[in-house]
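Please decode residue identities from the backbone states below.
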């Protein structure tokens, strides 16, 4: 599913999301950053180095689908951008996954590059996944 990532009203790139955790309403994908992203990149990378992810506590991240529908994820939006990787990863959880099915109703799956990051990734990247899982679990329990 193609979508656009914003900080406030400023578009910072495009993401092709896949479902990464159906039970948690989780999606993820690599960001194709535009020039606007470069203004925020140093700060996002510092967030990554300090806590493993930059999230809605740091910026007003927003996801808009191609039809301009805004996703309102209950579990937040996070961006993983490390100087150690060429890819910038965006994840979100607590959304209605029925919006993310292709025309045949088939669900999309985890990308090979994301799997490689999990298997071969840095400690900080693995920390961000753990942090995301804890945050998402808390969100589910809180309901």
């Amino acid at each position: 599913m193609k979508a656009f990532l914003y900080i406030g009203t400023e578009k910072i790139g495009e993401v092709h999301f896949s479902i990464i955790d159906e039970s948690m309403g989780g999606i993820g994908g690599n960001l194709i950053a535009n020039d606007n992203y470069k203004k925020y990149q140093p700060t996002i990378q510092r967030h990554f180095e300090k806590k493993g992810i930059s999230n809605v506590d740091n910026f007003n991240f927003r996801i808009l689908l191609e039809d301009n529908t805004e996703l309102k994820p209950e579990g937040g939006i996070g961006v993983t951008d490390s100087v150690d990787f060429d890819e910038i990863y965006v994840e979100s959880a607590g959304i209605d996954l029925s919006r993310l099915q292709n025309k045949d109703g088939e669900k999309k799956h985890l990308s090979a590059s994301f799997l490689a990051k999990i298997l071969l990734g840095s400690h900080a990247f693995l920390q961000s996944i753990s942090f995301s899982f804890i945050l998402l679990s808390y969100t589910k329990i809180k309901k």
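Observation: Residues 106-127, 136-140 have pLDDT under 50 and may be disordered.
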